[in-house]
Protein 1
Amino acid sequence: MNSSLSSRSTPSGLRWLLATVVLAVLAGCASPTQRAPVEERKPATARPGAPVTPVVAGAASAPSAVEVAPAKPALPGSENAGKPGYYTVKPGDTLIRVALENGQNWRDVARWNNIDNPNIIEVGQVLRVAPPGVDAGAATARPVASAGRVEARPLEGKPPAPAASGTVTAASAPAPAPASAPAAAVSRDPEEDLNWAWPATGSVVTPFDDNKSKGLSIAGKAGDPVLAAADGRVVYAGAGLRGYGNLIIVKHNTTYLTAYAHNQTLLVKEDQIVRRGQKIAEMGSSDADRVQLHFEIRRLGKPIDPARLLPVR
């Protein structure tokens, strides 16, 4: 009887033992204190004094090659920088000022440089300021011709020695010297030969100063007439040049132009022909602290003292 019970209980005891072992294994696998093995890599030890590069989470790794920013395109005309007849734009420049400083019509400068919008020029841009085909270097070096001055020169050859007898024979008489050209026939540059007149009747209150005043300041009352100083063509009439107010610029030839600033009223327009003594504006105080006419004469764009050319009062 006992042997039979023992034989029947043996399988169930074995099953209980197996179940216990399985439960123990499952419990060990589910325990939170157990971790899967992870390979840990320690950072390389930095050398003393070596810079430490911070690592930003999510940042892309730097490329192996150094990236070079694309070069900016060259500004128009940069290949002509420094050449005679060209001008490099500086901060504060406008096309009107560039033309005035170089003795040109601003419309011509715009056309020579294919500028569609005269209000847009870039610092560093190089502009042609001399007509195409003109030797700007030779024009700049041309001296100012003297107005009607005649240079006295002695006749060439020494006078003959007197004869011992006190008489001069036909054989010893000197040959007549060749007639020299009359002094009045000295050639004059027509570009310099202009008939100048004062642009206003008032007194000069500020003389020419190349470092401060580029012209003469002439006193007057608001509305006094402003007259063209010589025959020419109006190349600018407006208020687009800072410091000049209502301004008129007259070009007389390829050498000279005149500027009339601070006017109250402008009576001419661009491209209009004016004559010496013609009323072109009324005196005022635009962009100035008093009523006055600021008058400039520019030779090849450079201001000169108008008193050198205007007639003596």
Note: The CA atoms of residues 110 and 116 lie 7 Å apart.
Protein 2
Amino acid sequence: MADLSFSIRAEWAGSGRGGEGVLETGGDRVRYSAPSSMGGKGVGTSPEELLLAAVASCYSGTLFRVLERQGLPAERLRIDTTGVVEGYPRDARYRRVTVSPVIFGGDPARQPAYDAAARESRDLCFIGRTVRDYLEYVVGPVTVNPVP
């Protein structure tokens, strides 16, 4: 097995929650700061949202692959993802991340199979496997929408 390496560049200016930064990743520049709900600038995205984005993006690709492998129709997916931070501000830490897939172009008559595929994908997504030892990582409601 090969080891893979990934890198980004993060620049930050300003003290603590009052600062803001720019990430350079994949040729894109993304502004970030502490969220306004945590006393920050609320500019661009936030580290909290970026963690959710990592989980959701990995999960979405994994779920699509599992659906294909199981012969379950799907044209596209949307992953509604929420995170809960506990102990703010003193001992803040993520407690739970919930992924709730919405499957477009599916077969609602096969809902139990989609539910099972969603749970299997949770266990296969390698970013999810990385975080689940540190926080609760769950699959929420699975919505299957037929082709209109």
Note: The radius of gyration is 18 Å.
